[in-house]
Design a protein that fits this description.
The protein is α/β, with parallel strands linked by helices. The chain contains 17 helices and 26 strands.
């Protein structure tokens, strides 16, 4: 079943001719160079022409299943070529893509399916094999397709459903501000919210990324992070806009990444700081040919100075930090290669071409250099709003700017991140940025990762408290770590307690989740006296 373009007196509306739609840019890249390899996964290679045809078959199959433009389609999938076909097929059919993080618990999976009112599910066979997942999906919406496997129950085979359909693109009316996807927040601050992004915002972000990273058809990049996450999704799309090649990986393995750099002559590599360090320190790295790398991108966390200097000297000559968020589709701010060795700390850099960035106080006044306030943005990559949450949407748009919830300050023309607004620890009448405490702890030679939070305290209101993960084989106790902090922090900034833990709660993309720490340890100081 297809939807035709509406006309008035035989004349199509402007949107039918000048529309901006995610699927259109894939078609154009395929038309320019159909034989060019778009994706590599292990021994598999998929050209732009073949990929475009499979996407159209998928779109036709979805419409033939009775879905109509605007229906929500959930994907519960890890990285694969089939997943890429599915997400673009959903967009091309005019449906709304609702990706679910496969690392979420079943309660959150149920919540997203119910909250989004999904009518169809595309799921990996390995995930559907789990009894709790199967029970949830069979309950609602109760139908869908299985990727990379045979069908079961009311779920048909994804490949079989595509094979029955033509490779001609369906005629579907799409407007640039139609919602293309509802991507639920990672849950670092609580219950996920559904972020609605339009075709226009995603396309603008992708084109912006192609320009900011200088991408061309000659580039080869990796997709190691989950494709259901906004960062990897927007980077992948930027590469497709440029006609580049993407090496898809099912997870991070330093050997697999190093092999791919050599075999595919990768020129652009994306990873979290810990991934870059693992590649640098791998015993086979010194004898690898990494000369094809021209640019490496890191995200989610700052890079320690000693590590960054080693990476630039030994791994890749150009490093860049990119930031953004699901609500303001990435990339929004970039700390460029020429700045990397000029200043150190939590610098985010400058705005990208697609949006404006400013720092604002609580009264809506834009602040000047040296003044700390909330980081705000304006631009076409802003979300349409939070699904079914008009109050949160209105709050995010106060004073005509999108509010990120991050605190920042302009220093010498560069934006410096100070903290999440809710992660600013208020202790004894003083404000302590948690990121400042974490940065000091990460300078300790035994510390691999750290998180600082404020916990309820009878005297200090909130007590600065830190949790650290030690490097393999390293040793450090609370006393030595506190002494290290005393050497680098003001008295009120030093943690009242530091716990060494095996691991920190993390999202699938490497963000530390602080709210579980606050909840688990909220009574840590109950025995303290107010006078102490």
């Amino acid at each position: 079943m297809t939807a035709s373009v509406s006309v008035t007196q035989g004349v199509p509306p402007p949107g039918a001719i000048a529309r901006v739609a995610i699927g259109d840019f894939l078609r154009r890249s395929a038309a320019r160079d159909p034989a060019k390899v778009a994706f590599v996964l292990g021994a598999e290679r998929l050209t732009y022409g073949d990929f475009d045809a499979r996407v159209s078959r998928c779109a036709n199959a979805l419409l033939a299943a009775g879905l109509v433009p605007g229906d929500r389609v959930v994907t519960l999938c890890n990285n694969s070529l089939e997943f890429l076909v599915a997400m673009f097929g959903i967009h091309r059919a005019g449906l709304v893509w609702v990706p679910i993080n496969t690392g979420l618990g079943i309660d959150d999976v149920r919540y997203i399916i119910d909250h989004s009112e999904a009518r169809f599910v595309l799921v990996d066979a390995t995930l559907l094999a789990r009894p709790d997942t199967a029970a949830a999906l069979l309950h609602a919406p109760g139908r869908g397709w299985v990727l990379e496997g045979e069908g079961r129950d009311t779920f048909d085979s994804f490949g079989a459903m595509q094979a029955r359909q033509p490779a001609t693109e369906p005629e579907v009316e799409i407007h640039d501000r139609d919602v293309a996807q509802i991507m639920y927040t990672s849950g670092t601050t609580g219950r996920p919210k559904g972020v609605m992004q339009s075709h226009l915002s995603v396309v603008m972000a992708a084109m912006n990324n192609a320009i900011e990273f200088g991408l061309s058809r000659n580039d080869v990049a990796n997709a190691t992070l989950p494709l259901f996450h906004c960062a990897q999704h927007t980077l992948m799309f930027g590469l497709l806009v440029a006609g580049s090649t993407l090496v898809v990986m099912r997870g991070f393995d330093p050997v697999v990444v190093l092999d791919a750099i050599e075999r595919e002559r990768m020129s652009f590599m994306v990873g979290l700081p810990l991934m870059h360090q693992a590649l640098l320190d791998h015993p086979t790295r010194p004898r690898r040919d990494l000369s094809s790398l021209r640019l490496c991108l890191y995200a989610m966390a700052p890079m320690p100075e000693t590590l960054l200097r080693r990476l630039i000297a030994e791994f890749c000559p150009n490093y860049m930090l990119g930031t953004g968020q699901t609500e303001m589709y990435p990339l929004t701010v970039a700390f460029r290669p020429e700045q990397q060795l000029q200043r150190f700390g939590s610098y985010w850099g400058v705005s990208t071409l697609v949006n404006d960035t400013a720092v604002m106080d609580d009264a809506g006044r834009l602040l000047g250099p040296g003044e700390v306030g909330e980081i705000v943005h304006r631009g076409p990559n802003v979300m349409e709003g939070y699904y079914k949450n008009p109050q949160a949407t209105a709050e995010s748009r106060a004073f005509g700017w999108h509010h990120t919830g991050d605190l920042g300050v302009w220093v010498d023309g560069q934006l410096m991140f100070r903290d999440r607004k809710k992660d600013m620890i208020k202790t004894g009448g003083e404000n302590v940025p948690s990121i400042k405490v974490e940065a000091v702890l990460l300078r300790h030679p035994a510390v691999a990762n750290a998180a600082a939070v404020g916990l309820p305290h009878p005297r200090w209101i909130e007590a600065v408290t830190a949790f650290v993960v030690l490097k393999p084989g390293a040793q450090a106790d609370e006393a030595s770590l506190i002494q290290h902090c005393k050497e680098h922090l003001g008295g009120f900034e030093v943690p009242k307690g530091i716990a060494v833990v095996e691991a920190l709660p993390m999202t699938s993309t490497g963000k530390i989740q602080k709210h579980p720490l606050r909840e688990l340890y909220r009574n840590l100081y109950d025995g303290e006296q107010a006078a102490t």
